[in-house]
Amino acid sequence: xxxxxxxxxxxxxxxxxxxxxxxxxxxxxxxxxxxxxxxxxxxxxxxxxxxxxxxx
Length: 56
Prior knowledge:
It contains 1 helix and 5 strands.
């Protein structure tokens, strides 16, 4: 993910179903880790977009 951020990506989500968590990467910020299920959105980067994750 660091390589993506270094190349200009502003937001990246790493969804890890084995660990039941999501890692959220934003440029110039620390990694945020959320447990699943989670609702992912970022109005600054993706206005109006919402990704709902749930366990199946």
